């Protein structure tokens, strides 16, 4: 006889859209400090002017947007890995004889133990439980998760589940094959990202090498760069160099930003 897990999910909170992430206070302060530090470095290296620092302060807004996108990408990568484990937990429940709805409910306990009750996938399973108790179709709930997550792997699983649930057949077998394929895809992506992470570290080092060279020469040979500052020709030259540097940085980011 199948057992049914009963636990209270979130009552008033709405499930999140993972593309609509808002920085926490600590994250916002950290990013602002990062941005201010970069502006101080740029205003000193390229202009040696406090006035330029204040003129560049509006650049903090696009910098915060850029950092927010990096947090969004990181959260979605974590959710993808957690969703992979959830798929296998659901399939294990099906193979143990649970109905598909109860398999999802029992997967909550596994995810809570594996990632914690505050993890994204545990909270999503709470939302699933709440909607199932409100007589929502499981396939609709999964499709809603796929729409909010904006992750292709979750969308693929939701589509296969919808087709398999409506057409009948060997649902556990279909879901297991689908989960295995998605898991293999995720693992390949992780291996690629591990390889790319070494290149990203090299890129980070190279980003700071020009500044390190200038600061070293400036410290060992005071006045060496004085002719490049506080005159029209020097300002124009350093502005052009800053544009070239930023273009090279953005190009390297684009090359290493692998989309799947």
Q: Any descriptors?
A:
single chain, mainly alpha, 260 residues
Structural class label: mainly alpha
Largest sheet: none
Mean pLDDT: 87
Number of helices: 9
**Which bin fits the share of residues in helices?**
over 70%
| Topology pattern, helix = H, strand = E | HHHHHHHHH
How many strands in all? 0
End-to-end CA span = 43 Å
Count of individual domains: 1
Low-confidence segments, given as residue ranges, are: 1-12
Radius of gyration: 25 Å
Strand content: under 5%
- Overall geometry: elongated
Textual characterization of the structure:
The structure is a single chain. The chain has 260 residues and is an all-alpha fold. The chain has one domain (25-256). The chain has nine helices and no strands. It has helices spanning 25-47, 50-55, 60-95, 100-115, 120-133, 138-149, 152-167, 171-220, 232-256. The chain starts with 24 loop residues before the first helix and ends with a helix. The model is unreliable at 1-12 (pLDDT under 50).
Summarize, please.
The protein has about 260 residues and is an all-alpha fold. The protein has helices at about 25-45, 50-55, 60-95, 100-115, 120-135, 140-150, 150-165, 170-220, 230-255.
Question: In terms of topology, how is this protein built?
Answer:
Blueprint lengths: L24 H23 L2 H6 L4 H36 L4 H16 L4 H14 L4 H12 L2 H16 L3 H50 L11 H25 L4
Helix pairs in contact: 1-3, 3-4, 3-8, 4-5, 5-6, 6-7, 7-8
């Amino acid at each position: 006889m199948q057992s049914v897990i009963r636990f209270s999910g979130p009552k008033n909170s709405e499930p999140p859209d993972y593309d609509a992430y808002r920085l926490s206070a600590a994250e916002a302060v950290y990013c602002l400090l990062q941005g201010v530090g970069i502006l101080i470095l740029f205003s000193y290296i390229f202009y040696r002017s406090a006035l330029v620092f204040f003129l560049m302060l509006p650049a903090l807004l696009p910098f915060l947007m850029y950092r927010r996108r990096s947090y969004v990408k990181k959260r979605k990568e974590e959710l993808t890995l957690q969703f992979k484990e959830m798929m296998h937990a659901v399939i294990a429940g099906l193979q143990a004889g649970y109905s598909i709805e109860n398999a999802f409910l029992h997967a909550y306990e596994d995810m809570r133990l594996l990632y914690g009750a505050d993890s994204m996938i545990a909270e999503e399973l709470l939302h699933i439980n709440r909607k199932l108790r409100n007589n929502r179709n499981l396939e609709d709930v999964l499709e809603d998760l796929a729409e909010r997550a904006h992750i292709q792997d979750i969308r693929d699983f939701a589509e296969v589940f919808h087709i398999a649930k409506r057409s009948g057949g060997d649902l556990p077998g279909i879901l297991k094959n689908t989960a295995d394929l998605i898991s293999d895809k995720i693992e390949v992506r992780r291996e690629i990202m591990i390889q790319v992470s070494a290149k990203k570290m090299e890129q980070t080092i190279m980003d700071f090498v020009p500044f390190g060279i200038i600061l070293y020469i400036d410290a060992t040979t005071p006045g060496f760069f004085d002719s490049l500052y506080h005159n029209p020709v020097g300002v124009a030259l350093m502005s052009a160099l800053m544009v070239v540097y930023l273009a090279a940085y953005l190009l390297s980011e684009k090359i290493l930003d692998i989309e799947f």
